Amino acid sequence: MDKIVRTVYRQLYKKAASVDKDIAMRSVLTCSPQRLYDHRRGVWIAFDLAKQSGWPESRIFLDSLIRKLNHGRDFFIPQAGRDADDDGCRGGSSEGNRSGGNDSGGSNSSSSGHNNEDGNKSNKNNTHGGGEPSPTLLQVLRKSFEETPFTVGQMNNAFAALKELAYVTEMASKHYGSGVLPPKEFDTLPKPKLTVVDTVGEMHHLSLTKGLSDVLERLSGEEKGMVSRKSEEDVRVKEETKDGTGKGDDDNDDDNFGLSGKTPIKNPFETPKVVHMLLAHPQLYEFFRYSVMIVVRSTPNEAAAFILNKPLENDEGMLMQVNSTIRLNHVHPILGKHLGNHTVMIGGPVSRGSFDSSILLLHRIPDVEDAIPVSQSLWVDGNYDVLQKKLDDGTADAKDIVVICGFSGWGAGQLAGEISSGTWVVARGSANDPAMDDFIFALARHAGVSSCGAPQQPLESASSSSSSRRKAKKMPQGGECRIRSAAAWALAYSALGPPYADLARNQKPFMQDPREN
């Protein structure tokens, strides 16, 4: 019996040492959520999954072990300057997935971003989750096993932990080098100076909040007494039907402006001082998998963001363009005239009313009246007639516009709770950073290809073998779309520098879902 015990613990510590050396592998270890968000009441409520599901003691132990390893979070996020070192955490092996999900696509950290060394020297002061380093797996195991008396139950716990770590290391070895790297065409793209933080700063100054309220909570023109963003003829007819003089109620209402084709009331918006981006944890699945978002609203009661790297696809995995998706006779002519070949990007699962009424434009065209600033040279919407005139006379380029449908929204305290659980890595940058807007557009441009008129680029994976390249070329269109989205996600992580860039090596080959083999 003693020999069996020693053998099990020896193997357990050996596997733990391997996982400790690689941040990507450590990030595979996730635990069950302890609370759920009640959207109806707008509060977090406690939830005991182990009790609800009748877990055995060994699984409860394993879940508790991983939570200790993750500093109390559901997901592991490294501590900058503490969890990374030259000898360990940027090790060469990759990772698998505890739940059958993310098999690794990794190599050493030098390959997690093509331009990390030059582009991220300013990111070494990133902080996340407090001042203390995350405990190593070896430390947690020793505390769990060596400081408590031996029992049969403890032996079962050791077997459960060994099985978990064996799966992680096995998948890491099996899928080493199969992950998607940041796009090589952006090697020379200057990366913004980003800092990883624990919270999203409030964006609650009156003008920005009011403008986004009109966009995100927009009612139809008939309901609110404002013109909608349709054709110039529709706008003119609706204006004339308000009263005999051709003036509607909105002509005297400062709240109703900007998104129509009519001459807007001058109302300057305040430009935010910082930009916040949300990077999905590699173990986050379903709708937000491998997503990168830019926060456009943050108040104590709600938050909103746009996904930058999620193109709209049909059932066959083909990218959907404006002219084949939107009823052009129900929207402003700019969409059909100049943006018809743009890929529709999914900003999130939340919309207001019809698909057509949920369309927004993210652009970097200056001097557009009533455009809502996201950074120094990045705006949302504005007066569409002004935008169209600039495109007509050649003073603006349609490549500087991204067509977005819907947005991602959170209730009171919901986003903060998700951040504290490790669901999102929050990156903060200056709105005045000249590299910020180019970087944000690069993410959307690569994921959507035609969303900004960018040419198709060859896909690049961590594996340089000809067989891997042949597989990528033969992959269905849907697989290519997912790879491009994941590559944009990896690009965003590469801008954070070590140790966060290593999280992007936690990928499942060819973007399969967890249930797929």
Automatic annotation (TrEMBL):
Entry's Gene Ontology cellular component terms: cytosol
Coiled-coil intervals: none
UniProt feature, compositional bias: Gly residues: 90-104
InterPro entries to which the protein is assigned, alphabetical: AlgH-like (IPR003774)
Chain spans, region Disordered: 80-136, 222-264, 452-480
One Pfam family in the UniProt entry: DUF179
Biased composition (Low complexity): 105-114
Amino acid composition bias (Basic and acidic residues), ranges on this chain: 222-249
Name of this protein: Uncharacterized protein
Species per Swiss-Prot/TrEMBL record: Trypanosoma cruzi (strain CL Brener)
